[in-house]
Amino acid sequence: MVNVTMRQLRYFDALARHGHFGRAAEASSISQPALSMQIKELEEALGGLLLERSARQVALTRFGEELAPRVRDILRSVDELGDFARASQDRFAGRLRIGMIPTIAPYLLPKITKNLTRMHPELDIRVRETMTPRLIQELVEGRLDTAIVALPVSEPSLTEVALFDERFLLVRPGSDEGTPVPSREMMREMRLLLLEEGHCFRDQALSFCNMQSAPPREMLDANSLSTLVQMVSAGIGVTLIPEMAVSVETRSASVSLSRFRDPEPSRTIGMVWRKTSPLARQLLQISEVVCLSAGKARPRQATRGQRG
Predict the structure, then answer these.
(1) Which residues contact 277 (CB under 8 A, 6 or more apart)?
(2) I need a labelling partner for 19 at 20 to 30 A (CA). Which of 28, 33, 273, 307 fits?
């Protein structure tokens, strides 16, 4: 019988994901020599080499590549056993891994954490902030319990719960205060500042302006809304920001804010989790806390993909 431990499988999964002993060891909270020893013991137990080692990086062997998705399935199933045990209890306690996109986390996270801690003091809340594709990947692989993103994500294995709609506002230099609000057609002729590739908010802004790609006048790809607003304040161009970001991002910037005429650009904020998650009932309760934290009411018939 093959003698393999869960610890070894988790270390191998970390190494397969990071492709580097140092980063995998840091992510696993273990020393690099200890990680290397555990991987070597796993290779001996399985009777084959999992890695091609070099001074700078680690590559999986063919055997390692075939093993990696099986290991992820095992780890996900084990984690779901723990979730099943927690779901059977009356209280909501233990680890809760929440992912959020960068255009939501700075504005909602403090309120969500405060409310969840108050309502469920035994929860160990762990937050991951990154862009939607990475969140969905980590959610499907079982490394997150849920994620708060802009819908839809259209992943068949996930349940989507719409929470609330949020409008976008136009941010212009302070000198534009009181001038007419441009139409979406006029926006195509302006210097529109956007988030860098990969942010769904960038795609939503381009969609509103009926653009397939960034306009030639664009001078900046930023990785935060804060940078965009400060560049507008400097007179470089205009941008769009979601309503929840207004109070935080414009308090120290000399800019003017305007609403568009109907139909206003907007996005739907929602939560997603695996259809197989034993925590589905608890996560649905948490979705109510998210709405409470945002000061919004969740729309009726807002759940898609939930197994009955």
Answers:
(1) 80, 83, 145, 146, 159, 283
(2) 273
CA atoms within 13 A on the CB side of 176: 19
Tokens 């136009």 belong to which residue? 170
Helical ranges in the chain per DSSP H: 6-18, 21-28, 32-46, 62-87, 105-119, 132-140, 184-187, 200-208, 225-233, 246-249, 280-294
Distance CA 50, CA 62 (A): 8
pTM of the model: 0.73
Q: In angstroms, rounded to a whole number, what is the distance separating the alpha carbons of residues 171 and 238?
A: 6
Parallel/antiparallel/unpaired status of strands 123-129 and 158-173: unpaired
Direct distance between the N- and C-terminal alpha carbons of the chain, in angstroms, rounded to an integer: 39
Distance CA 16, CA 31 (A): 17
In contact, 30 and 22? CB cutoff 8 Å: no
Of 48, 39, 45, nearest to 11 by C-alpha is 39
CB 305 within 8 A of CB 192: no
Q: What is the DSSP letter of 188?
A: T
Decide if 138 contacts 155 (C-beta within 8 A).
Answer: no
Q: Which two tokens stand for residue 224?
A: 């935060």
- C-alpha distances (whole Å) from 74 to each of 10, 47, 78 are 10, 19, 6
Q: Give the chain's length.
A: 308
- pLDDT digits over 232-282, tens only? 999 988 999 999 999 999 988 899 999 988 888 899 999 999 998 888 888
Computed over its alpha carbons, how large is the radius of gyration of the chain?
A: 23
In the chain, pLDDT over 70 holds for what percent of residues?
88
Q: What is the Cα–Cα distance from 308 to 305, expressed in whole angstroms?
A: 9
| pLDDT(218) > 70 | no
DSSP letter for 77, please: H
d(CA 219, CA 1): 61
